[in-house]
């Protein structure tokens, strides 16, 4: 086990590795969005079926496995466990090239979701062990910027590959890098100490106590509600934005992929990485001030989403997609930093897993499906974009949840660090 000084000097390198893990997580998760149109034409899927494969199937596997995975993450070598799950989801993504119809695609997406349930618990627990509380929002921003980078790569690479070699080749291309990184993590990434913040950090907490803490702690519960709403909308946006540009604005598949890739991979990446530093700067050591950046940005996302449905030209639609990219990268760092700061070290993996369960079961599982159902019911030339605007409007509720939840965090930026046991719910 490495000594603490080693981790202090290498913590940003560790954050970079975890960012790459999140990049591959997002790449495999959202590449489906760029191949919706080829799948629809080949298999004659409805929008509801595509929404189920794109969102519900992944979320079923994720939600079934995320709590057991979080429980294991508090009790085992987190790095090796995370690397194993990375190898599994990447290999299964590659096998998606052999899919023959609805149920084979649904099964593939379910297994990928099950393995990807390890990402949040593993990365958030590792970040909380490696970084002090005053740097956690910044570190969370860097790590979660991998989500934006992976989403952007999914659309740019996926759109190009699908345009020239078909949708089956897309699955092969996105699966290989994760298998390679998984092997490297096993060989080169040491497990950091569980925590040097608490004398009993190694004593895992029963899940019923975690659930009680989760529900009764304002900073954890309300931030999780906000994260669930945003997860629903992000899943809907990245699944449906390419079909919107192709169907409603006349883009080719590769051109739409490039636009969405810039929005998700460049603009969302930048806002995710920088929002943590901006939130820390505004907070100035006060964790209860971290709400400003995510709440304001999410409020701006609502008119941008509705505007796409009424954009008078493709150029304006592109600008609004870029605005969405900027606003949707701001919610990762501050709320998750507040949750981890309000959580004792010995239950961070389990709390992170429970937060992801709620976010996916109540958000990502239903977002693309609801948008697809609304689109089928509305019909018409711009039915998908109108349906998307309706779901994204719930970001106003998420903004209020972050404001209320983060303000419930103790004014001390080290509330969990100073505690050797359960934190008093606030």
UniProtKB/TrEMBL annotation:
Main location: membrane
GO molecular function list: transmembrane transporter activity
Membrane topology type: Multi-pass membrane protein
Domain Major facilitator superfamily (MFS) profile residue range list: 14-410
GO CC annotations on file: membrane
Superkingdom of origin: Bacteria
Regions annotated as coiled coil: none
Listed Pfam families: MFS_1
Compartment annotation: Membrane
Keywords, in A-Z order: Membrane, Transmembrane, Transmembrane helix, Transport
InterPro entries (UniProt xref): MFS, MFS_dom, MFS_spinster-like, MFS_trans_sf
Transmembrane region(s): 12-32, 52-73, 85-105, 111-131, 143-161, 167-187, 220-241, 253-278, 290-309, 315-334, 355-374, 386-406
SUPFAM superfamilies, sorted: MFS general substrate transporter
Protein name per Swiss-Prot or TrEMBL: MFS transporter
Species, as recorded: Sphingomonas ginsenosidivorax
């Amino acid at each position: 086990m490495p000594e603490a000084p080693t981790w202090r000097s290498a913590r940003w390198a560790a954050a970079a590795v975890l960012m790459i893990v999140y990049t591959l997580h997002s790449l495999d998760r959202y590449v489906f969005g760029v191949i919706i149109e080829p799948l629809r034409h080949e298999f004659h899927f409805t929008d509801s079926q595509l929404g189920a494969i794109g969102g519900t199937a992944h979320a079923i596997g994720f939600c079934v496995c995320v709590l057991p995975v979080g429980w294991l993450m508090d009790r085992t070598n987190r790095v090796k466990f995370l690397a194993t799950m990375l190898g599994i989801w990447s290999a299964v993504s590659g096998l998606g090239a052999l899919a023959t119809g609805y149920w084979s695609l649904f099964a593939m997406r379910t297994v990928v979701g099950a393995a990807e349930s390890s990402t949040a618990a593993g990365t958030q627990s590792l970040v909380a062990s490696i970084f002090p509380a005053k740097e956690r929002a910044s570190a969370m921003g860097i790590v979660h910027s991998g989500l934006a980078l992976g989403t952007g790569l999914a659309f740019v690479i996926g759109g190009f590959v699908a345009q020239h070699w078909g949708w089956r080749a897309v699955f092969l291309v996105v699966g290989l890098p994760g298998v390679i990184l998984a092997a490297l993590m096993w060989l080169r990434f040491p497990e950091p100490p569980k925590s040097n913040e608490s004398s009993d950090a190694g004593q895992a907490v029963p899940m019923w106590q975690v659930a009680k803490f989760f529900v009764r702690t304002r900073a954890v519960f309300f931030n999780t509600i906000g994260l669930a709403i945003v997860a629903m909308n992000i899943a809907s946006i990245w699944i449906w934005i390419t079909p919107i540009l192709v169907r409603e604005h006349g883009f080719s598949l590769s051109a739409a992929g490039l636009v969405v890739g810039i929005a998700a991979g460049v603009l969302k990446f930048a806002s995710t990485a920088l929002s943590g530093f901006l939130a820390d700067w505004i907070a100035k050591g006060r964790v209860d001030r971290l709400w400003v950046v995510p709440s304001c940005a999410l409020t701006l996302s609502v008119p941008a989403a509705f505007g796409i449905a009424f954009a008078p030209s493709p150029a304006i639609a592109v600008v609004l997609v870029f605005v969405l990219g900027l606003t949707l990268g701001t919610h990762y760092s501050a709320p998750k930093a507040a949750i981890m700061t309000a959580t004792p070290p010995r239950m961070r993996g389990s709390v992170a897993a429970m937060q992801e369960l709620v976010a996916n079961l109540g958000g990502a599982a239903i977002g693309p499906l609801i948008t697809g159902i609304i689109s089928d019911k509305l019909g018409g030339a711009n039915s998908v974009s109108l349906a998307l605007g309706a779901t994204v409007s719930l970001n106003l509720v998420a903004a209020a949840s972050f404001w209320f939840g983060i303000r419930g965090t103790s004014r001390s930026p080290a509330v969990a660090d100073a505690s050797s046991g359960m934190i008093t719910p606030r």
